[in-house]
TrEMBL record:
Domain MKRN2 opposite strand protein-like C-terminal residue range list: 49-202
PANTHER family noted in UniProt: MKRN2 OPPOSITE STRAND PROTEIN (PTHR33963)
InterPro entries in UniProt: MKRN2OS-like (IPR032016), MKRN2OS-like_C (IPR053921)
Name this polypeptide is given: MKRN2 opposite strand protein-like C-terminal domain-containing protein
Domain of life: Eukaryota
Organism annotation: Caenorhabditis elegans
Organismal lineage: Eukaryota, Metazoa, Ecdysozoa, Nematoda, Chromadorea
Amino acid sequence: MPPNKMYISTVNHIGCTTRFLLVEPLNFKSKCPDCQAKIEKNEKWTISRLPCPLAQSHEDLACGIVIKPSNGHFKSYKLGDDLHIGISNSQGLIYSFWTKGIEIDTSKWENSLKILDFRAFFFENLNLLDNSMDFFVEIQRKMKKFDKSKYMENDWNCFDFVMEYMKFTNYRNYRSKIDFLEEFVTKKLENVVKYCMLFEKLSNK
Ligand SMILES: [Zn+2]
């Protein structure tokens, strides 16, 4: 199933002053609020996408830390609901830890949120980045630190896996999950929730 695209665009009828927002696919029945002309795909209109915080492709997910609601889509996510977090390699493969141990997959991560990009940290060397993730997983599998038997919903979970990787790479050593959440997650999560609310509102117009 292709991911649901969640683009919002600003639309402006050239010569008129009021800009308005539309979701894709564009509804060509929509009218200019100033002159009531129907929107068309020609040079009389400018249509530009707002930056979408949610990943719309594997490329958007690659090389970083990604989060998503543990259950369902960000559209129905409320601040405080459980989150699942993972690290992604250059191919957009996502490594995470859950009740079944370390999992590597791409499915189920559509429309998730990338909260940090590792490319600059690895000097844009994607091989180095991929190798570090594979090496990290190999070590963890040997040490059994992230064995499925070790999983604890609150005390040893997907966040610990990601923080352990950041420690392993010398990116950062966090004293607590709260520090990590404050630095990377909270603000971005609020933005996503706002974006989804706007998207829903515009979709139901
Ligand atoms: Zn107009």
